[in-house]
Specification:
CATH topology: Rossmann fold
Radius of gyration: 17 Å
Strand content: 5-15%
Largest sheet: 7 strands, parallel
Number of helices: 8
Distance between the termini: 45 Å
CATH class: Alpha Beta
Number of strands: 7
Strand order of the largest sheet: 3-2-1-4-5-6-7
Bound molecules: nicotinamide-adenine-dinucleotide
Low-confidence stretches: none
Structural class: alpha/beta
CATH architecture: 3-Layer(aba) Sandwich
Order of helices and strands: EHEHEHEHEHEHHHE
Length: 265
């Protein structure tokens, strides 16, 4: 039975995980490999990319690990050149990298604002810029950008630089979708809600004095499904958007949040 991304080359940016367990990027990379793709796993932390490579090759999948910072043009160009040099093409660009920060306008420093936009927005611009010429030449390609529900709602605590950067990701993706629609390229966004990943424990746990369970219990109450999602919920959504099953879907925003954005309060 053919797999859902059989023989495609998937370039996953931020394919590692910030801590032990399954992050969104790591799960997506593993799932693409399970569904037949050759994976090029990129992370700023070489060891994190190598861990994903180890997981994939242990399942007899094909994966190359590469160290790069998505906010640096030279790194991104070297990474895409290496991916195309090794696998001959790039069919799926999965942009998972996204830094999180709390704070309202008064709290956030200019340097913090610039850092979040450099990584979260410029990073996706740079990876798209490097991959699109190859996709145009191939006459096909799919871009999956990971945003967040904070792009469209206040999520109950201030994270102004993160929210604004993710809103920019949404419009960057819509614009690419329109600009490249006639050249066989699709671009879509996933907006995860409250997901139980290492990133959340790392970023929000400190607000609850490290009591992650207390944080999860309190925040779980506002989710209509009464549970957090996990990295696999994001990965399976990405697999669908990257696959040919989504061939008529471009410029879409797929919310993966257990219904939380449907609530008034
Ligand atoms: N976990 C959630 O609840 C949640 C909710 C909404 C959106 N998201 C989005 O999901 C994405 C991340 O999810 P995750 O669980 O994989 O997080 P993660 O932090 O575990 O993994 C991200 C990986 O990106 C790497 N990275 C960081 N900066 C980089 C850079 N400049 N260049 C290359 N790699 C870099 C990290 O080393 C890490 O391995 C982000 O875009 C985030 O905004 C997460």
């Amino acid at each position: 039975m053919p797999q859902r991304v059989q023989d495609k080359v998937a370039l996953v940016m931020g394919a590692g995980s910030i801590g032990p367990g399954w992050g969104n990027g790591k799960a997506a990379a593993v799932l693409y490999a399970r569904e037949g793709a050759q994976v090029f796993a990129v992370d700023i932390q070489e060891s994190a990319a190598q861990e994903t490579q180890r997981l994939i090759t242990a399942e007899r999948g094909e994966c190359t690990a590469f160290q790069a910072d998505v906010s640096q043009a030279a790194d991104v160009e070297a990474c895409v050149a290496s991916c195309v040099g090794q696998f001959g093409r790039v069919d799926i660009l999965h942009n998972n990298v996204g830094l999180f920060a709390t704070g309202d306008v008064a709290d956030v420093t200019e340097a913090e604002w610039d850092r979040l936009f450099a990584v979260n927005v410029k990073g996706m611009y740079l990876t798209s810029k490097a991959c699109l010429p190859h996709m145009v030449q191939q006459g096909r390609g799919a871009i999956v950008n990971i945003s967040a529900i904070a792009a469209m709602r206040h999520v109950g605590y201030s994270c102004i630089s993160y929210a604004a950067s993710k809103a920019a990701v949404n419009q960057l993706t819509r614009s690419i979708a329109v600009d490249y629609a006639q050249r066989g390229i699709r671009a879509n966004t996933i907006l995860p809600g409250l997901m139980h990943t290492p990133l959340v424990e790392h970023s929000l746990g400190e607000e609850y004095a490290g009591d992650v369970q207390k944080m999860i219990e309190q925040r779980r109450q506002i989710i209509p499904m009464k549970r957090f999602g996990d990295a696999w919920d994001v990965a399976t959504a990405a697999l669908f958007l990257a696959s040919d099953e989504a061939r008529y879907i471009t410029g879409a925003e797929l919310v993966v949040d257990g219904g939380v954005t449907c609530r008034v309060a």
